[in-house]
Amino acid sequence: MPANPSSPHDAYFRRVLSVPANAACEIRDTIPKTLIDRIDWDNMELQPVSFVSDQLDSRFSDILYRTRLDGHPAYIYLLVEHQSRSDRFMALRIMEYLVNIWNQHRHRYPDQDTLPAVLPLVVHSNGTGRRWNAPTELSELIDLDPAARAALDPYLPRLRFLLDDVAALDLPTLLARDLTSATRVMLALHKIAPRNTDPRSDILKLIDDLRILASGPNGVAELQVVMTYILLVGDFTEADFDLLIDRLGPRAKEALMTTAERLRAEGEARGRAKTLSEQLTLKFGVLPSATVHTIQTGQLTQLRTWTTRVLTATTLDEIFA
Known about the structure:
Elements: H1 8-17, H2 20-28, H3 33-36, E1 45-47, E2 60-69, E3 72-81, H4 90-108, E4 117-124, H5 146-152, E5 162-165, H6 171-175, H7 181-192, H8 199-204, H9 207-215, H10 219-233, H11 242-248, H12 250-284, H13 289-296, H14 300-309, H15 316-320
Helix pairs in contact: 1-7, 1-10, 7-9, 7-10, 9-10, 10-12, 11-12, 12-14
């Protein structure tokens, strides 16, 4: 499932944790140690699905892996919450997603008469530092007096999700975790980039991991992902990267120049698409959905051409010919 292009949090989360090694280190660092040796980490298969609705994809991102637990089929479901306020009904939301996973599994494997285990992990990440303060157990959401809860206890739904409350960690603690460089940088930037007041200082704290990313076979691409996120969500300018580029070398400079140029082009494209839609609506009325899609997916050169045709065209066909 592709990332939501309108959400830099979603795009960055998916880009990093869609790599099994990056996801595995985050999961191993969070789950009970008694489970670590039971999971087949070497054969985690990313599943091309998402269960988060379009209405929620700016606040949540999810990834599903298929693996084996003690030799049996199993799934690991990762959900990251980007918002600053804890979702009180997260346990209910997780239950809905688990039912969807099981139904999908039954559809894919109709001959199996058992359900696979699903390990749900919620990563709470935001730039405010607010700790998670909502229930992690589904039964806690049910409104019951203590006596009634005791009487109904055998019949209450049981679901507790694992929680990695990254928002509650200070930066040194987070950086000391046993994670891959890509995962550590991603979680750290989710924490510091949106609220950053001293970008040079905080970014330099990630320098060792950034060096590792830059030195890899896809170093420029890895740095582009990092810089894209920083420029989109933080109050950063290209000048704020000067010291970082000095430390990382020419690959970092190439990544910054390419990223900044692409973001400027994307910004111009969004602006032209919005202007073109408004102009065409004023001239021709409500636009067909196919026309809206054409505008939204148009390349910058196309949008420039279409915009110049608005004044002289008498039909929509003339504009997009």
